[in-house]
Each structure stands twice: as structure tokens, then as C-alpha cells.
Write a structure and sequence with these properties.
By secondary structure, the protein is an alpha/beta fold. It contains 5 helices and 6 strands. It starts with 15 loop residues before the first strand and ends with a strand.
């Protein structure tokens, strides 16, 4: 875990999966969406439908951001699976930058005017993920969320950085591992 967030309790040591929503109009047009409600593109809907073809290794507990793009992805990817919406899984509020071109994005550690600070988001994501992982009981927690939530999770799971933007509609599996700084998680793309 990043030293900046070392005072947070660790996530429960259990496997879980994060999936970024399908491609949106904002993704396609390189626009900062944040808390804006934007639609999936037809390609994004196809990406979500393709997830329905995956064979999952055990029963799932499906969680989703309450934002429309995540809920629609969940409905297309897991049509027979009920999903629990969790407000803490929303994308970061980029304040005055929302709707602007992606190159206008301020530094991650800056608090955008009218928006959410990075440390505040890390704490929100930590609380939301912890609740989901506990609520899943013995089922595999699968969380449909956003790029910012995944970047925050990377720090919470002991990754060395926030990494690059996660691909749309591709499962990122986290498995507990023992790293040089104690309990961490290994992140793998598309491996179930």
C-alpha cells in the first residue's frame, strides 16, 4: 500500500474482480466524464455482452456503481445475475473539469475546484470495496465500476502505482499474495 494511505485498514484478504464499464461516448470522444451520466456506445454495449460469454469459476456476488454506464454494463454482462448498487463505487467527481477534453485533466493529487480530492476518493473506495467483499460472503465479488475506482484500488492492493487506465469491459482479478511490504494483491487481466 502506498505510504500516503498506510493508515487505512487493509482490504479483506480474498479474491475479487473489478470490471470497468463498457466504452462510453466520453471515452470515445476523449472527454472527462467523472460524475456526468454518459451513455455506452454500441461498441461498449458489445463489449459488455461479450462478458456474458465468460465462464466464471464459482457463484458470483455482483456489485455496481450507481452510475448508468456501470449499471447497463452489469445488466448486459450478467443478464440473469442480480446486482447490488453501491454509492461508494461512483467515479471521481472532477468538478469544473467534467465535460472538458481529457488533456485538461488536472494532476491526480490536486483537488479540482468543486470536485473530490484524491485521498478522499481513496477512503471512499476503500470503504465501498470492504463492504462489498464482506457482503459477498462465500461468492466471488465482481464489481462493475470506473477507471478512477480501479486506480484507487491498485493503491489499496499494494500495487506500486495507479497504473494506466484500465481497459473497458475486461475483468481484472485480484488475488491475495505476500509481497515485500506484507499482504498485497496480485492483479491479472482476464484470468479467472
Amino acid at each position: 500500500m502506498s505510504p500516503l494511505f498506510s493508515d487505512l485498514p487493509r482490504l479483506p484478504a480474498r479474491p475479487f474482480v473489478l470490471i470497468r464499464h463498457g466504452e462510453t461516448t466520453a471515452n470515445r470522444d476523449q472527454i472527462i466524464a467523472g460524475r456526468l451520466e454518459v451513455e455506452l456506445t454500441e461498441a461498449g454495449r458489445d463489449q459488455a455482452r461479450a462478458l456474458a460469454q465468460l465462464v466464471w469459476p464459482q457463484p458470483l456476488a455482483l456489485f455496481t456503481s450507481p452510475m448508468h454506464r456501470a449499471r447497463e454494463t452489469a445488466a448486459l454482462a450478467f443478464p440473469a445475475q442480480p446486482a447490488t448498487s453501491h454509492p461508494g463505487l461512483k467515479e471521481r467527481d472532477w468538478g469544473i473539469y467534467e465535460g472538458r477534453p481529457l488533456p485538461d485533466l488536472p494532476p491526480r493529487n490536486a483537488t479540482p475546484e468543486g470536485g473530490e480530492g484524491w485521498q478522499e476518493m481513496i477512503q471512499r473506495v476503500h470503504a465501498a470495496l470492504t463492504a462489498c467483499l464482506i457482503e459477498a460472503r462465500s461468492n466471488l465479488p465482481v464489481v462493475i465500476c470506473h477507471s478512477g475506482v480501479i486506480r484507487a484500488t491498485r493503491l489499496l492492493t499494494g500495487q506500486p502505482s495507479v497504473g494506466s487506465r484500465a481497459p473497458n469491459a475486461r475483468p481484472l482479478h485480484y488475488r491475495p499474495a505476500h509481497g515485500p511490504t506484507g499482504n498485497t494483491f496480485e492483479e491479472t487481466l482476464n484470468e479467472l
